[in-house]
Amino acid sequence: MNFNKTLIRSSSVGYLMTEPVTKADKEAGILSKTAKSHLIEIYIREKYGRTKDVQTKQMRKGVEVEEEAIDLLGEFLGRKLGKNTERFTNDFITGHPDVLDLTEAGLKVWDVKSSYDLFTFLGNIPDKLNSQYYWQLQSYMWLTGATESCIAYCLLNTPFGIIEQEKNSLLYRMADVVTNESPKYLLEAAKLELNMMFDDIDQKERLLLFPVQRNDEDIELIKDKVLKARVFLESIEETHLNFNNGKGI
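Given the sequence above, the corresponding structure tokens read:
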């Protein structure tokens, strides 16, 4: 199989950009174990058409409230924003930014991340922006020509279906409770729902913005990593196809 034109998704670029553990590997420009592990998944997807079916309740919420998150961001900024429907591709990467915002200063890319609860949301405050998201935004700016971008962490009410699943799980875990009419269960269910609904919190307190400026030097680094990733994919296929040769079986 020819991997010379394999495109890396913007959401995956951060894996390629992780640094190896040893100084020698860094200086040699060797891909990290994290990068190689992710490239195995890409190899499986490209060659066999299989992908890991991973869906957590956090991921499900993010998908279900995405439009609401964009609306919340637009209300905060005081202008109408819409979901971008176009996928962008160049010779190295491909990506689908959440929002393309044409301002007086030029094109800006927004990516919304919906936090599962207040604890995970506010946990972002003491930290720098997740490096995976930094590289994702650099990729989006490269693809679209934008010079500015921003991650918007949003806190939105949890969809009804997820709350009901959580309540059912709660009932199952409470060994000393017989039905969902039990006062003890109702008390715990009310606490659970409070932790998943946020209408009582002011809008401006439910958004955390992490701006990222375009860095063309880092974009050049992405190109280099993609080229190395393609070489690695070719080597993995060769190793895979010849793995049992010469073992005297």
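The mean pLDDT is 94. Try to locate this feature in the token string yourself.
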